[in-house]
What we know:
Blueprint (H helix, E strand, L loop, with lengths): L1 H26 L4 H26 L1 H4 L3 H4 L10 H18 L4 H20 L4 H20 L4 H4 L9 H19 L4 H22 L4 H12 L9
Amino acid sequence: MSxxxxxxxxxxxxxxxxxxxxxxxxxxxxxxxxxxxxxxxxAVWALASSRAFEIAVRFNEFGWNIIRWFSVFxxxxxNSLAALLTFLIMVYLAGVKRQWEVWxxxxxxxxxxxxxxxxxSLLFSLPAAAVWILGFGILVWIEKEYRLWDWFxxxxxxxxxxxxxxxxxxxxxxxxxxxxxxxxGMVFSGVLxxxxxxxxxxxxxARSGRVLKSDLExxxxxxxxxxxxxxx
Length: 232
C-alpha cells in the first residue's frame, strides 16, 4: 500500500513541478522541450543511482541476484541523498553542455525540485514537507522580486543570478535536518540546520554585488563609539 502511494506521489510531484518548470523555461526564453528533457533524464538517473546506492549499502539482502535488484515491491529501498546529488550533477552537466549560465540553470531547476520533494515527503515527514512547500513559495517570490532589490545589486547596475539557488540551499538543508531529527537526534539535526543557514547566507552574499570590505567598514562606522563633545 505504501509503495503504491509512494508511486502516486512521485508521479504527481513530477507532473506538478514539471509544469512549473515549463512555465519558468518560457519566462527565461529557453527551449521548453529541452528543459523538460533535462528534467526527465536527471530524474531517471537520480532514481537509478538511488537504487544502486541502496543495493550497495544493503548488499547482504540483495546479493548478486539481479532480479532482486529490480524487485522494488518485494524489496523496496531508495537512497534519497544519492538521488538528490545525482539530480544536481546531471542538471549541472546538462547546463554546461549547452553553455547555459550555471547559476541561472540552478535558479530554474531547483524550485521545481523542492516542490517535487515536498510532495513526496508528505508520505514520511510532514514537517519537512511543510518546510519545503513553504520554501517553494519563498523561492517563487524571490525569483519575481530580487532583480529590484538595490541592496542585492550592490555596485552593479543589475542583479546577478544565484540568489534563488542560495536560498534553496538553506531551505533544502532545513528540510533534511527535520528528516534527520527522527533518526540522528537533535544535535546532528541542529548542526545541519545551522550549516544550511550559514551556507545560504555566505552563498547569497557572494552572488550579490556588494563588497565585503566596504560593508565591514560601514558596519564599523555605525557601531563605532563616539564620545560626546561638551560645550564650553
